[in-house]
Amino acid sequence: MKFSSFLRVGVLTLAICGAVQAQDAPATAASVKKYLLERLERMNNASEDFVKNSDAYAALVAANGNSVEAAYKADSKKMDALVGKMQENYKAMDSFGYETVEGIVAGVESMADYDIYLDAGVPASEGPDGVAPVVLDLGNGKKIDKQGSLFTYIIEPALWGGDKRWVVSVGDNKTMPKPEVLAAAAKDANKKIGELVADAKAWNASVNDCFGAMVVMTPTLSDYFEDWKESRYSSSKSGRFQAVSRISDMRGIMSSCEVMYDAVKSGVAAKDKALAKSVVSGFDEIQHFLDLIEKREKQGEISAAEIDELATQAKEKTDKLVPQIEQSAAVSGVKVQS
Amino acid sequence: MRTLAKAVLLAGVLGLTVLSSRADVIDDVGSLQGVIDESLLDLHGNRWSSENAARIQAARAAFQPNLTDPAAKAIWDKPEDFSPANAAQSLGNVQARLQHVAALQMLAALSAGDIEKAREWRAIIKLPKYVSAVEGALALQRLGGEGIHREQVAQLLAKEYILWQITRAREKSDALYRLVLDGRATPQLIASRSAEIEQLSLIPASILALVGAKPPEQAPEVNSAKLVAAASEGSADLPKLISEWRLALEAGYPNLLSAEDVQRRERIVLKLLRLIPMEYQSGVRNGEIIIPLEYREAKTFTIQAGQIVNELMPVWRQTKAEALTQYGSTLLAGFEKLESGINRKVALSEIESDVKEISSLLQKEFGLALKKAGTGADVVTETVLEIRSLLGQSLAAAMDGQWRKAEQLRVDAYASFDLEIESRALPRDPQLAIKAEKTFLDGTPGRPGIKAALDSRAKGETLSGAYDHALDALDECAALVKVGLSPMAATISTILIVSREGLEAVVILAALLAGLRGPENAGIRRRIGLGAWLALGASAGLFAVSKTLLQGLSRYGETLEAVISVIAVVILLMVTNWVFHKYYWTGWNARLRDLSKAAQRKRATRWENLALMGVGFMTIFREGFETTLFMQSLILEAGMKAVSLGLLIGFLLIGTLGVAVFAIGAKLPYRKMLVVTGVLVIFVLFTFLGSTTRLFQTVGWLPVHPIPGLELPSWMGVWLGLYPTWEGILIPFATFAYVGGMWLFVKITARRAQAQAEEAGPDFQAAASH
């Protein structure tokens, strides 16, 4: 390109930047807050139920001389039923609860720490970045000290037997959760979700927050697809992400992002109709795509080439959304943090 | 009324039609993309049938009426074969062509002033995750409708589009290569992906023209068809073939970088490469990740360096075409090997070896320079300014919440610091250098470094405080490294060396002339004197030549200083050696006397004239030669001004001495003067060995082993050349061991010779005394 052309492009850039600076801050996003509070309330209810069930489970074990094995031998049906109920509580708290608001909680700065604590934080051994500050007093002189986030590293592997530290063998390759781990984790989850509800109520939801959260969360979608691809290739599973498919997690994040985009869409459309429509279509396409993946997963075997193709197509769709959200913010006059 | 109602209804229908037709491009592309996606899944799931072929052809045909631009139509109308054998390639082609068609339609709509349409077409173009698309969106929003700006907006949109699609092509070819390495690539996958990548790389000529670029003149030798053939045959050469193919594609991409961008990127590549083994060493031990953060950095730096090299390829195609043809594949393969080694957590030595191979290839064959050219002080000044600017930008980005940008700028600043400042500060004051380094990284307890502040998304004073600490430490290091040897120390060294060498010359000349008194020897004295003056001139000439030569080599900075320092040390060792060796005086003087006598015997011949001049010349030039070479080292270390002052004072002293001896005939205590100057030269050698050690450590020829807890005031460095490292202390003190050893050796040898002479009798004693 000739120098004069570069110069002209440079002048143009300055003109554009100047124009952006002149924009005013936009309005609130009450619909997002309403959605968030509704979901959090459900999570809170599930966590209360989880506390009751974990207490009942612990009481059953205590009644059998504090032996999980003895309790299981004495009444395996009741034990299994309680674990089943707690698994449902967990799904309501996490897969169908937290994951549907993760895009908002993790993306909004004032609430982002809850994401580390509940869902995304890693154990101290994998730090120093993003270590979940979860410390559980098990009441028997032992502690779980920074071993990862409450949902992903403690409750889920305890309920599904993914981590030997949190379970007890009851014979025939069957494991049951340690009652002290479940009881401590349940109480902590209930407490933390309560705090999150309080903070969410105090949150002054703005359009800026929504754009900021979308810019943070949409890039994670292609990572999720990459995780999904690798988990499909991998013969052994890690002990995590077993409760429901990763598809559900992706759908949850997508839902939060869609809710947030819905709150800002009219502002974008007023400036650039095509862009607003393209982003909405992008979200729709990804949701359709998730349906397609779920359908193919349920159909059974997917060839390696098909897995790669699915992941590649998913990546393209999610990748495109990231700069388009940034464009949406820019044309709406919102300065987003990346 | 009914007519009005009809008109309103008609207008409404028309309006809706217009609105729906506007939305149709996005919807139509959505439908078409859906068919392409489903077709690809059926193809890779081995469910391809004639129904698929019919569906995709129908979708293509249904989309065609959206196209109005002739170039877009021409691309879209290219026939495609969706038979089972060719479906993969054709699907790849269609995917990529859809992007080009959208871009052409966008530009055509802009040119026609239909901004809404241009936006629609732009909205359907696929984008890589982390590209900026904001400028184009805003340009269309604010300036696109104004005819006066339309051409500039078109250039901006074209440039954006090219960058997006080149980035996508690179990402896709990288993913394809990994797929092949992992053994997951089927011939169908290779066919569809490589065809798509090839088509994406063929940016339409009219779009390239908007940024002043042209399409490549030749089609690459290795193409998608060859890759598919190799994959079908199960060839082991497939990864190599893909590397060659990627390189050929890179060579065809237009250069969108300015000369400044290129220079900066070339330097960053080498800086990143230098950091990789350091991060890896901290992050991985015995195949296990011990510090994830450091391991991740090693991996990220490798990927970044590889990406920058890819970005530079189109530029190198023009500026380093030969190197690119010859070593391009090796270079890319080197990066792939390095990344694979990091992923497998191999031994550090393997990573170091891979990095060394890539670095030396880039430096030797592609002419990249790791360090900035110029003298140490200039480089330090320039680097400090650069780091300050980068940190300023990083802080601004962090305060603006652009954490990713802030981190990139921090890495860039840290790489410059590590390469140009820390390497110089470490031999001088290891504790300060390490403390300064920490301010760029995690910091110290209670005082987070910049990296820690950025990682924790720090705000306010914590954030700005981290930058302030780093800038303070940077200034401290810069002040330390700017001065090599104190100018005063250099002046004193110059005076000492000139005095010592001058004194030697005067003593020898005086001894020679002592036997040539009287008017009958006036001619001889004149000829010897002429030789001496000529030697002074020759020494001055040598001084000028050496200085010019070294100026020409100044781009080698400290490396040149280190080499010249070695020469200076050798000269000083010789000088101190002669202090104790009687032979220097007896042997050298005897030779000169013999030469002089031989010349006198053959009077009035040309040979005699020349020989006598030669005697005078040799007497002075020998000392002048040593002085000249030594001075070069001092000039490089402390500058011309300090050395000139020393030369002036030294010459004045020696001049005075010469006048006193030769003109007035004064008798001076030569022996005492020689011993005193000899001892002073030993101290010069001590200082010089210290600063040479530091130079060797700076250029990496000697390791740096700090002495824990030892802190030395900076004057000890600039005056005595003493620095708080094991090497910086032990090597200068080795001077005394050398001098002491030499003194003992001379004494013992002399005593033995004396004893032998006493045994042999008086004749031998007389011979030995010479």
Look at the structure and give the mean pLDDT of chain A: 81
Main beta-sheet annotation of chain B: 2 strands, antiparallel
Q: Please give the share of residues in helix of chain A.
A: over 70%
**SS summary, helix count of chain B:** 30
Q: Structural class, judged by helices and strands of chain B?
A: mainly alpha
Q: Largest interface, counted with CB-CB under 8 A?
A: A-B, 58 and 63 residues
Low-confidence stretches of chain A: 1-27, 235-244
Secondary structure tally: strands of chain B: 4
Number of helices of chain A: 11
- Rg of chain B over CA atoms, rounded to whole Å, is 38 Å
Task: Specify the oligomeric state.
Answer: heterodimer
Instruction: Report Rg of chain A.
Output: 23 Å
Strand order of the largest sheet of chain B: 1-2
Structural class of chain A: mainly alpha
How widely separated are the two ends of chain A? 30 Å
Strand content of chain B: under 5%
Strand order of the largest sheet of chain A: 1-2
Helix content of chain B: over 70%
Strand content of chain A is under 5%
| Element pattern of chain A in H and E | HHHHHEEHEEHHHHH
Largest sheet: number of strands, sense, barrel closure of chain A: 2 strands, antiparallel
Topology (elements, then pairings):
The complex is a heterodimer of chains A (338) and B (770).
Chain A: H1 3-21, H2 30-63, H3 68-74, H4 76-107, H5 112-120, E1 135-137, E2 143-145, H6 150-160, E3 167-169, E4 175-177, H7 179-202, H8 207-233, H9 246-271, H10 273-299, H11 304-331
Antiparallel strand pairs in A: 1-2, 3-4
Helix pairs in contact in A: 2-3, 2-4, 2-7, 2-9, 3-4, 4-5, 4-6, 4-8, 4-9, 5-6, 6-7, 8-9, 8-11, 9-10, 10-11
Chain B: H1 2-44, H2 50-63, H3 70-76, H4 87-111, H5 115-124, H6 134-142, H7 147-181, H8 187-201, H9 205-210, H10 224-233, H11 238-252, H12 259-283, E1 284-285, E2 288-289, H13 292-319, H14 321-344, H15 348-364, H16 376-399, H17 403-428, H18 430-440, E3 443-444, E4 447-448, H19 450-455, H20 460-482, H21 487-514, H22 522-552, H23 557-580, H24 582-601, H25 606-638, H26 640-664, H27 670-698, H28 714-720, H29 726-760, H30 762-768
Antiparallel strand pairs in B: 1-2, 3-4
